[in-house]
Amino acid sequence: MFKTVLKIIRWTGERKKRLYIGFVWSFLMHIFTAMPIMGAAFMLDLMIKDSRGEAELKPVWALYALIFMVICVLGRFLFSYLRATFQESIAYEKTAEERIKIGDILKRVSLGFFDKNKTGDICGTVTTDLTVLEMYAMKMTDTLVGGYIGAAAMIICIAFYSWQCSLICVAGVVFSGVALIALNKKAAKNMPAHQKAQDSLVGSVIEFVRGIAVVKSYGKQGAAARGITEAFHSHRKINVKIELDYVGLNILHRLSLNLASAGIVLCSSLLCYNGVMPVSTFLMLTVFSFVIFANVEIINNSAHTMEMMEATFKKLETIENAAFPAQGTNSAPLKNHGIKFKNVSFGYDSRPVIIDASFEIPDGSTTAIVGASGSGKTTLCSLLTRFYDIDSGEITIGGRSIYDLPIGSLTDNFSMVFQNVYLFNDTIMNNIRFGNPAASEEEVISAAKRSCCHEFISRLPNGYDTVVGEGGGTLSGGEKQRISIARAILKNAPVIILDEATASVDPENEHLIQSAITELSKGKTVIVIAHRLATIEKADQILVLDNGRITESGTHTELTLSNGIYKHFAELRGKAEGWSI
């Protein structure tokens, strides 16, 4: 718990000074909270002396008492306001920066990072976990540190009247602290299970929402809901267990403080009985015994939240310590865009995917890559664009190693059109403009016309200002595909990568998309991953991948004359594409 507070303080970074000043305001606030009790004791002592004839209580003292009480109340609220002003906004400001920082990190890590870390975990960190820090970091810090600051302020006040009672207060705080440390250790043991249940819950919800169309189409709402229901039950079960585990230690914590309060009353009454302490001081210490530990008592409620924040810090460290791909430094423009793979190998963890691949793609040529599903076609292109880094070998573009170029400069040379198109929850105009943020409206419309999508966009109620919904859900597959091609045309990169761009569209859309691709590919170096013969048979060269190895290369005519994998593939595709009802 206390280690987590130190982490929170370090996490605040440059705002740490504001946090410390807030602690000072908190101390003064508690002093002004204690002062009315001492003022009341002082006035009571004057009244007792006046009744005994030992001193005269003048009416003006009533005015003094009123002014003193008003000053105490105003001081208390002033310092409470200052503390809140200095501290409360820190977590909101810091978590906003943290989310932007994480977004920047996720943009820069390789795709391998997302293979090793679940989407649900990453989403949970950016949303739920950071929200815990946002909402509770300052509140829990104030509860814990402010609680002890408040107790310290009142113990100091009590020490002026009775060192014996102040020692009893310290003993109560120490014993309650021992119980809180044990409570913190228990929370640390429970937190991994709680975090696992939390991540499972987030992951199950994401999976259920993403797969809802499949669930409905198969009428399996009950079966699909089983996983998310189990995640809810698991989450509830671990939370109930945590609460039950805390009961005994919570009682011990509160018992230590309550016994100390009783000890203050007992000690002060004995001192008063023996004439060592005046009655007014005895009554004042009795009042103090009821309020001195109020802020320390509620610290136990922060133990579990503190451990949640500790788990959040660990997850943040995982993201923030993620390794970035090495950046090249030579950003000089490429003289040409010929591509060469030399003995390239790559694998996901221990599973080899690309094995000793060597080939060349001349500048301005079209190369088709064919092979069975899982043979490594998409991975080959991902290595070229440095979505992943190779294990061995060399890849060059324009005669220079791709590792000599900054990643931004490298990817500027590529436009990619994927089978599964993702459009952002934004206007069609901005989705196309994503290929070139500086493009004018006229340039966007020109790109749309060249990609054969201007006509259907014009028919939409809001035209180019139509918001397409998350993932482009309001558009058909062919429409999304053509918008993605418009995006690529607007980028105007010298190398085009087409990954199954026409694999899942109807004949009419395929014709339009082929026209758009032809427009996109003019004068470019083109890499095509496809199964349709019409897409690949006119390529300048065809590479055949089989279990990660390049087994054949040549033109369509050359490969169909040999008795290899491609000939068999072409025969099967010819039969499939000629099939009719």
Our measurement of the CA-to-CA distance between the termini, rounded to an integer number of angstroms, reads 70 Å
Q: Strand order, main sheet: write it out.
A: 6-7-8-3-9-10
Gyration radius from CA atoms, angstroms: 36 Å
Biggest sheet: strands, sense, closure? 6 strands, mixed
Report the structural category. alpha/beta
- Tell me, rounded to a whole number, the average pLDDT: 82
Count of DSSP helices? Answer: 22
What would you call the shape?
elongated
Low-pLDDT stretches: none
Percent of residues in helices comes to: 55-70%
Description:
Helix 2 (16-52) packs parallel to helix 6 (119-159) and helix 9 runs antiparallel to helix 10 (279-291). Helices cover 64% and strands 11% of the residues. It has 22 helices and 10 strands. It has 581 residues and is of the alpha/beta class. The mean pLDDT is 82. The radius of gyration is 36 Å and the shape is elongated.
Keywords:
10 strands, 22 helices, 6-stranded mixed sheet, alpha/beta
Secondary structure topology:
Elements: H1 2-11, H2 16-52, H3 60-87, H4 90-108, H5 112-116, H6 119-159, H7 163-210, H8 212-218, H9 221-273, H10 279-291, H11 294-297, H12 302-320, E1 339-348, E2 351-361, E3 366-371, H13 377-384, E4 392-397, E5 400-401, H14 407-411, E6 414-418, H15 428-433, H16 441-450, H17 454-459, H18 477-491, E7 495-499, H19 507-521, E8 525-529, H20 533-536, E9 541-546, E10 549-554, H21 556-561, H22 565-577
Parallel strand pairs: 3-8, 3-9, 6-7, 7-8
Antiparallel strand pairs: 1-2, 1-4, 4-5, 9-10
Helix pairs in contact: 2-3, 2-6, 2-10, 4-6, 6-7, 6-12, 7-9, 7-12, 9-10, 16-18, 18-19
